[in-house]
């Protein structure tokens, strides 16, 4: 007996095949807050030192330019250890984490991201001393990127 016949016979013997609905996964503001808490723990996140540069209105959410820069001397004793970016409505709340060191010279990260809907983007910089600094921006997306092509 081959595998296909075995599976077909098993499904017939059970009498039904269970079909699970496939919905799109979606982060929420609460999921974003939870993801941020996993990164910062009980530490206080202060606003300032971080600059989040992305357009406030984008026509297409497939390639949204994003630049995060942080004021830091980037010296062995005081540098930006990581830059974390979060969103509140894409399938996953974590967009990316960039690890840095004093040899980077500047704490600047630029990339393009996908946005499935209009939402808030949060960037958090982690210093070598364990402090967290943040900035946020709201982005309006007219054509979402994370859409199911079957619809």
Provide an overview of this structure:
The protein has 151 residues and is α+β, with helices and mostly antiparallel strands. It has one domain: SoxY domain (Immunoglobulin-like). 16% of the residues lie in helices and 40% in strands. It is built from 2 helices and 9 strands. The strands form 2 sheets. Strands 1, 3, 5, 6, 8 and 9 form a 6-stranded mixed beta sheet that branches. Mean pLDDT is 86; it is low at 13-23.
Relevant terms:
151 residues; alpha+beta; Immunoglobulin-like; 6-stranded mixed β-sheet; 3-stranded antiparallel β-sheet; 40% strand; globular
Counting DSSP H or I runs of 4 or more residues, the number of helices is 2
The CATH architecture comes to Sandwich
- CATH C-level: Mainly Beta
Any idea how many domains?
Answer: 1
Overall outline: globular
- CATH homologous superfamily (4th level) name: SoxY domain
Radius of gyration: 21 Å
Q: Helical proportion?
A: 10-25%
